[in-house]
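Hey,

The postdoc asked me to send both predictions to you directly instead of through the lab channel. I've kept everything plain text so nothing gets mangled by the mail client. Protein one:
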Amino acid sequence: MSSSESINSYHKPDNYHVEHHQVDHQFTNNTHHSNISKVHTHGEGNELVTIGGHTYYRHELMSAFGGSLNPGPAPFPKFNINPAPLGLFAFGIGCLLMGLFNARVMGITIPNLSVAVACFYAGIVSMLAGILEFFTGNTFAFTLLLSYGGFWFSYAAIFMPSMGIAAAYAESDQFENAVGLYLIGWTIWTFLVWSLLLKSTLALVVMFFGLMMTYLVMACASLTGDMGVSRAGGVIGIITSIVAFYNAFAGVATPFNSYIVPPVVLLPEIKFGRGRK
């Protein structure tokens, strides 16, 4: 069975986006590349893409799309399911509440309610969505959602008296510094994720840049004890949650169920030097 037949042998979900390009449907001698383990484009007009040893036309592939947490061209999953919006909505709610409490909206300083949401919605649902991404073959989303699910559980555990984490620092002034170092670790992790999205979509890049800045500013707030910095981190978190909701909505909105279908803005690919042939 050819790659074209294998791709078209099952229904392409409506909530995934397709690479739209004008293509010449004649294979060239460059169809089979000697180095088939890497993702590369070839053909007379770069209309062919080889992924994992299988060659596809560009129009047969999903394009980068925030609504499916897909960072680049990839074959359609064999399972007609898109768990990404579920994980994005969970992430957005958790980020929104964390931002509201850190910004001291309505004068609230006790984070207990956000801890409950971090565990029972943001944490559990993110991990469930990540596990479902395993079956779609989306390694990026699988890694991302499970990791951030772990973040929500670990972040909530810091403020749970039964975990004894805060109590362990009760006789010292190390607690805020420890939380700051914890957030710096997540800043570095998010920077690595963000660096993998520079060829994807504007919404994805903005969302993870905002998340990275949220972690960084909140880490600075913990290390310095500055309330103004903490509030700034909360505001950035609120903005990040809005972009997360945008991506989640894009993943479930279609012309069949909504009058509003968010546009997808693809980032331009920058060519460095002379491309491989």
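Protein two:
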Amino acid sequence: MECPAEIVVPVRAESVKVARDWIEAVLGTWGQDAYVAKVVVSELVTNVLRHTRSATATVRVVRADKGTVVEVFDSSNALPVAGSANLLSEGGRGLAMLGFLVKEWGAQPLGGGGKAVWALLPESTS
């Protein structure tokens, strides 16, 4: 496993773009395409913004034996629940979309409080 790259962003709207640009830069140095990772990070950081009262979110990416894993940590203990959206809903599709884009994803509570939401990216090269 390679050392992870990590960024801490304040939980505000402009941080979604900061996190997205950061992961594109990191994966670029690893020779990996960042398209799916940018969508994943956008969704997960937006979820922290919309559904928690966390002051910051930590975005981590690591290359492991099973592939590249993106993790987003926040201070909320509430685990994400996939929504049920209808044609008129403005939200509720993000986690379902995530399930189609990545090999697998999940969430786990952290021992000291908060949670990590993670996604195993599909293999790619640039």
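Summary for protein two, as requested: The mean pLDDT is 89.

Thanks,
C.
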